């Protein structure tokens, strides 16, 4: 869902400091609605949840991270523990913020389909003038070239990180461009980081993965235990 007009999140962190908190970060051209299922699921599991809405199509990634994400992370300095769950671009914004300033109460991080090495499909999309106009500066920083925001981030991870990658594509062009397995935007290898704690596959496309039932379950499991629940990848790697 394109999100052109989101203003800075003005909610405060007045929830109990004894409760573990989760910040949700949606992806490019999305809104907090994209993370609504995760918000409901994590609240039901007993977490305090801040489903952050930020104007992903209006600014470059560094500006988004500095002006919209880092201030919110600081608000939860007194929480019992602070976790972060992201989708797509949100994962890169979280990485940037955490390499700049790691909270003392840092909990665990779960990234859904993060373009940790850039996106080959967005490298194509960023060359289309209409998409440039619709998706803004962050699209221009989401490819695989030297100017990619992903390549400006350190690969050193000093927190528990779980990554979920999708294995279903609904994009015929992506099926021609990307090497299997992929989610229509990212190949599995585009999502991995050497310092990650755990990794799992979800039979979902890039745009669906964050509200797929298995993603909800695996996210809860990782936040609670620091590991994903074991499932056979042979079951999850369903070809389109």
Structural description of this entry:
This protein has 240 residues and is an alpha/beta fold. It has one domain: Alpha/Beta hydrolase fold, catalytic domain (Rossmann fold). Helices cover 34% and strands 15% of the residues. The chain contains nine helices and six strands, in the order βαβαβαβααβααβαα. The chain has helices at residues 36-44, 61-75, 89-100, 120-125, 129-140, 172-177, 188-191, 213-225, 233-236, and strands at residues 20-25, 48-52, 81-87, 106-112, 160-166, 198-202. It has a six-stranded parallel sheet, with helices on both faces. Helix 2 (61-75) crosses helix 3. The chain is globular. It starts with 19 loop residues before the first strand and ends with a helix.
Summarize the structure in short.
The protein has helices at residues 36-44, 61-75, 89-100, 120-125, 129-140, 172-177, 188-191, 213-225, 233-236; strands spanning 20-25, 48-52, 81-87, 106-112, 160-166, 198-202.
Descriptive tags:
240 residues; alpha/beta; Rossmann fold; six-stranded parallel sheet; 15% strand; disordered C terminus
- Could you report the average pLDDT, rounded to the nearest whole number? 86
Shape label = globular
Distance from first to last alpha carbon: 23 Å
Share of residues in helices: 25-40%
Write the layout of secondary structure elements.
Blueprint: E1 20-25, H1 36-44, E2 48-52, H2 61-75, E3 81-87, H3 89-100, E4 106-112, H4 120-125, H5 129-140, E5 160-166, H6 172-177, H7 188-191, E6 198-202, H8 213-225, H9 233-236
Parallel strand pairs: 1-2, 1-3, 3-4, 4-5, 5-6
């Amino acid at each position: 869902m394109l999100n052109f007009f989101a203003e800075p999140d003005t909610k405060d962190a007045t929830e109990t400091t004894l409760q573990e908190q989760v910040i949700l970060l949606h992806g490019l051209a999305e809104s907090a609605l994209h993370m609504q299922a995760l918000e409901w699921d994590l609240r039901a599991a007993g977490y305090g949840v801040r489903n952050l809405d930020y104007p992903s199509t209006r600014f470059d990634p560094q500006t988004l991270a500095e002006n919209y994400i880092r201030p919110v992370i600081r608000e939860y300095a007194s929480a019992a523990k602070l976790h972060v769950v992201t989708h797509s671009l949100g994962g890169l914004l979280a990485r940037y913020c955490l390499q700049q300033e790691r909270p003392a109460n840092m909990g665990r991080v779960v990234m859904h389909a993060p373009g940790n090495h850039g996106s080959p499909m967005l490298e194509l999309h960023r060359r289309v003038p209409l998409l440039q106009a619709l998706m803004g500066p962050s699209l221009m920083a989401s490819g695989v070239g030297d100017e990619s925001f992903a390549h400006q981030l350190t690969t050193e991870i000093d927190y528990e990180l779980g990554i979920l990658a999708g294995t279903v594509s609904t994009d015929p062009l992506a099926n021609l461009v990307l090497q299997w397995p992929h989610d229509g935007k990212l190949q599995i290898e585009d999502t991995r980081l050497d310092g990650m704690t755990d990794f799992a596959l979800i039979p979902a496309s890039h745009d669906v993965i964050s509200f797929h039932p298995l993603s909800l379950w695996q996210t809860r499991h990782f936040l609670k235990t620091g590991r994903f629940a074991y499932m056979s990848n042979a079951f999850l790697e369903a070809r389109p």
